[in-house]
Sequence to fold (176 residues):
Amino acid sequence: MSRKDDVKLLNQLPKEKIPEYIFMQLRNLWAVDGLYYLGIEEHYSTEVATDLDAKVWAAMGKIEARKLKEFLGITNTDLPSMMKALQYTTWALDLEDKEIEIKKDHALIRNVRCRVQNTRRIKGLKEFGCKPVRFGFLKAFAKEFNPDIVVTCTICPPDKHPENLWCQWEFSYKEK
Fold:
């Protein structure tokens, strides 16, 4: 089978099933990410797993930004353009309960309910200190759009957080 055959196969899906299929594949991607993380954590340590995860996701931030800019035909380097692309990333698109605010010179994204953290709780695991992982991803993503975009973490584990907010990331421009 060729790529052309795969496209034909996908085109056989009912149009209304395509978003559901995409979300299922995103969950599969996150399951693989989680299984790798848990394996490294079990074999080595949480610190080693987090360090490796942070390096991988920083590289992914740059890769996703480049690919999404091309795919979406984004040529602007402004904050609203970056936020448009960010919403299509494997990370943001998979957030089930997110809030996004976009203004000309300031933007933010909040993860209100985190499936990864809630799954860890159900399994009796401690919260995943995902701040360095997400920070690296978001900084690399933003930098690929515009080196003058600054990413600030307002809250993210291992930070203490209220029950109704897992993380919040703000984006602005460097002061000149």
